Amino acid sequence: MTNNLLTTGWFLLSKHGRQVWECNKESKADLNEMIKTFRDEESRNKNSSDGIYRSTKVADEREMDSAQTVSEAVYNAIHYYAQLQAEDGHLPGDYGGPMFLLPGLVIASYVTESPLPDAHQHLIAEYFLNHQRKDGGWGLHIEGVSTMFGTVLQYVALRLLGHGATSPELQKARQWILKHGGATAIPSWGKFYLSILGVYSWEGCNSLFPEMWLLPKWLPFHPSRYWCHTRMVYLPMAYCYGHRVTMKENGLIQELRNELFTIPYEKINWEESRNSCAATDQYTTPTPLLRILNLCTNTYEKLSLAKWREKALNYILDGINAEDEQTNFINLGPVNQVLNSICIYHAYGKNSDRLKKHFGRWFDYLWLAEDGMKMNGYNGSQLWDTVFAVQAVRESGRQKEFTDFTERALDFIEKSQVQTEVKEHKKYHRHDSVGGWPFSTLEHGWPITDCTAEAMKVMLEDPQKRIGDHRLKKAVDLLLSFQNNDGGWASYEKTRGPKWLELLNPSEIFGNIMIDYSYTECSSACVQALAKYRTQFPDYRQREIGRSITKGVNFIRKQQRADGSWYGSWAICFTYGTWFGVEGLLAAGFRPYRPGEIPSPEIKAACEFLVSKQNKDGGWGESFKSCLQKEYIFHEESQIVNTSWALLTLMEANYPGKDVVKRGTDYLLKKQMRNGDFPQQGISGVFNHSCGITYTAYRNVFPIWALARYQKMYASE
Ligand code: LAN
Predict the structure, then answer these.
(1) What is the architecture, at CATH level 2, of domain 416-559?
(2) From atom 25 of ligand 1, which residue's Cα is the shortest distance away?
(3) What is the C-alpha to C-alpha distance for residues 557 and 580, in angstroms, rounded to an integer?
C-alpha cells in the first residue's frame, strides 16, 4: 500500500517551516481509493496515521529485523523518524483533530467568493464524510460524541461544497440535527457562523458589544486582558457583529434555512434562541453574571450610538490589520485566520491585496492524510516537535550516527528564535517577543513560554553554540518577564485578568478560556530551562533567576494533587502533567530515589501514583475523558504515548521498582513495528479541557526518548 501512495502526486512543500501541500498530477485515483477505505472500516480508529506524508518521505522501507534489544529498538525508531524530517530541518506532521475549524474555512471561502481548488474541495468533503459518526452527527473533535456544533457545521460545509441534501449521509445528519432541537440550539460560535451565511439571524445572537474595546484599559474585564486566543477570536467576531456582516441571499441559503430548523424559518423566535444550547454541546453553562451582562449589552444594541459604534469598529479593524501584518497573515490560530479573512473581505473587498494574502495562508493550515484534507489546529507544530526530537535523540547518545538529522534540526531551531520586536506591540496589547520561540514558525512569531523554554534547553547543549550568549540572555529575560505573581507561567503572556473573568466565558463549549492561567507544564519547562541556564551561566541575573526558580517550584508543588499526580492541560492528561511536575521539581534540585536516601515526598507520591495506574500488559493508557472530568480515567487499552511519559517520569526519578519500568519498556518494544515506527493510537493532545488535538509525532518521539533513557540507565540490556 505504501508504494501506491507515492503515485498520488501530492507532496508537502516546506520552506522555513511553512507547510503547503501541492499536487503535481492530474489523476488522484489511488488517493481516492485509500480515503474511501478509511471510511469503510466501520470499527476503525478515528485517528489517521499521517500515512500520506510519511509515505512520501519514508523511502527506505527495507524490512528491518524486529529489534532484539532496547538499543536496536532505539536505533530503528530514530532511523524511521529521521526520515520524516523536512529539508529545512523541522519535523512536519498531522495537527488535526478539532472538527470546528475546517467548516469555518469552507464558510469563509464561500462568503469571500474565494473558492479553493477543486481537488482541495473534494478532499475536504471526503474528510468530513470520513469522520461522520454512526448516529449521523459529528463531534467537537474526531473522537468526541456528536454535538450540534459539529453536526450543523459539517452539514452546512458539505452543502456549500455541493453535496445534495438528499444524499444518505446528509439525510442522516439532518435527522440528528432535527432530533436534537434544530440549529437554534447550536452554541454561540455556531450561531455566529450561521449568521454570516444568513442561515440564522444576528437577532438570535447575544451582543458582542464592540464598544467594549473602547472602555478604559484598567477595567478588569477589558478585552486586552483576555487570553490571547479568546481576545483574537472575539475581535473579528465583534467586527462582524457590529457590521451585521451577512452574505447575499441565494437559493442554497434559502434551502439551508429550510433544512436546519424544526419550525419554519420565519416563525423562529430569535430573541429566545439567543441562549439555547443543545445539552450535547454544553461544557460550561452561562453564569447569572453573564446573563445579566448579555441583558445589558443586548439592550444597548437597541440604543447604540452610531458615533461610538463607528469608532469601535474602526478600532477593531485596525487591530485586525495589525495582527495580520504582525503574523504575515498567518494569524494566531485557525479561528482568527478564518474570521479575519471575512472581515478583510467586508472591509476591502474581494480583489484586495489583503484578502489575497489571507487566501495564500489558508493553505498553510491544510493538511493531507489518509482521512482526507483537514485544517490543522495551528499552522503546524514545527518548533515544538523539533525541540522534542533533538532532546530524545540526544538522550540516546546517538547524535553522531544521526549528525545530519540533528544538525538540520538545530539549525531550524536556531533560525526560529524571534530577534526583532513586533511593530507597535504594546499598542496592540502584545507582550515582548524578542528572545522567544513560537510553537510553529518564525513567520507566525507569537512566542510561547514553554516553547521558549524547551528551545533554550536544546540550545544550551548545542556543541556548535549556534546561538551566542547574547541571544540566550534575551531568552532568559523574556522568561523572567513572563512569570506570574503566583510563581507559575501561563502560555503566551502573563495572566492579565482576575479569575472571576471566567464567569463571563460566553463559549458554551470550552472551559477556562478567559484569561491565560499559570500551567504546570509551562511552569515546569521554564523552571527546567532556567535551572539549566544557571548552571552554565552562574553570573547572569543570578539572584533573579534563583528567586524565579523558587517561586516556580512553589507553584508546581501547589498544583500537585493529594494522590501525587498533576493535571495536564495540553495533553492527555495526568501522565502528561505528572511528567512535567516531576521533571520540573527534579531540575530544581528535589531528591530522586537514591540508594540510602529518602526521595522528596512529592517525587515519591508522584511515582506511586503512576505505579498504581500501570496496566497488566505493562503499559499506561489514559482516556480523553480524564481532561473533561479532571480525574484519571483509564483508556480501554494501553497507549504508547502515556506509557512513554510514565516511563520517562519513573526513570528520571530513579524509581527503584525496576520490574515496573521493565514491563513498561517491554510494552513499547512489543508495539514497535519492523520499520521502527509505532502505530497511531488514540488522540493525545487537548485544549480548553474539551477538545482533542492530534500530535502525530508523539507516537515516535516519546518512545524514542523513553527507550533511550532506559538504555542509558540499564546499559547492558
Ligand atoms: C496550543 C498548541 C501548543 C500548546 C503548548 C505549547 C503545547 C502548551 O504547552 C501551551 C498552550 C499551546 C500554545 C496551545 C494553546 C491552544 C491552542 C493554540 C493549541 C492547542 C493549538 C490550537 C489551540 C487553539 C486555541 C485552537 C483554536 C481554537 C480556539 C478555541 C480559538
Answers:
(1) Alpha/alpha barrel (1.50)
(2) 229
(3) 11
